[in-house]
Amino acid sequence: MIDRKLAPDFKAIDNINLIRPEYKKLDNGCNVYCFNSGDQELVRIEWVFNNLRFDPAKPLLNMAVNTMLTEGTSTLTAAQIADKIDFYGAFLQVDYAYENSQVTLYSLNKHLPHTLPVVLDILTDSVFPEKELETFKRNQQQKLQVSLQKNDVVARRDFNKAIYGNTIYGLGATFDNYKSLQRDDLLAHFKQMYQPSNCTLIIAGKIEPDTLTLIKDTFDKSWTNGSIPANVSQPDIQPAKELFYFTEKPDALQSAIRIGLPVINRNHPDFQPLQVLNTVLGGYFGSRLMANIREDKGYTYGIGSGLGSFKQGGSFFIATEVGADVCKAAINEIEKEVNLLKTELVPNEELSLVRNFMLGSLLGSLENVFSHADKFKSIYFAGLDYDYYDRYALTVKNITSAKLKELANTYFNFDQFYKVIVGKY
Question: Which of 80, 81, 353, 360 is most deeply buried (CB count within 10 A of its CB)?
């Protein structure tokens, strides 16, 4: 019989085995990475583009162009695009992020001769119909109006603006930004950005022998580069000088808190050790912030901390919503937990728990070939190699409490943290 009073045995993780891609390059300059694995006749194909340089005068172009790619071409309406993809049991989506935009197709191999031409049409002939653009602007303004009623949304926008300044990372869209979108600007942006030389093609799944041939035949000659190269440089980040931001909402029942500061990104050797420190503080459900602010004090349903990493820099942040009457008390407790990391060593038992959580989370995130491709994207677009994950595992296994204390003293000066509060204070 199983003795349920005894915890199950667990073994240390020795190594992380990641599927590595095969690399090819199309004649039109598009880089192709293939992850061939799995038994199902399904492939995921991602066309990933670097966003164009952020223009403060027209700040929404990267997002708007990507979001509207499936709204019609000169030969297909949005409804016809959706019908063609649905008919073959495929799935097509567009995704926008700060640094990249992508088009993703899930399709059975046998249907690729029918689904790939639809993607080609989108990447070469999107027309951003005026009627659809007006609908997009109206819908986005309505969503923004709703979002700005949420304290946590306002706090996040204010924090990002303070940390990242007038860049794509610090953008908080306004109603006028949406109103000023013009079809001609979208078309010009589209032609410069969605070129094969600015694209990385990532294929994952059971890749048939003729899949790459089909992709090459479909895209190589029909998808060509324009005369103007994609300008994917970005403005320098200039954090704000002001460290405290308070937006009062007299009727608020809860106050949103966002606290943090600019830090290193994943290219810095301290980033992975800092990830361990972050996990101890607020990076998982058993973290110190959760134990104190939620479990002990009952100030919130949830609180967490995180690290953001981008090409030009990174940030550390703590985020929560607490009862409006305990906002100051919650901030005091957050400060106490941050300072404890600077003065006391993390106990071995707690550090062991964090190690197991982090390594287990990494293994758990590698459930299929698609997740292996996602891990590749994280390092590829950051200019890193697979030894990043080897170093990650070694760092998590071997980091000491003394090193964590040293990192806390290096990076966590609470007096220099940006503090954003929306609600009551």
Answer: 81
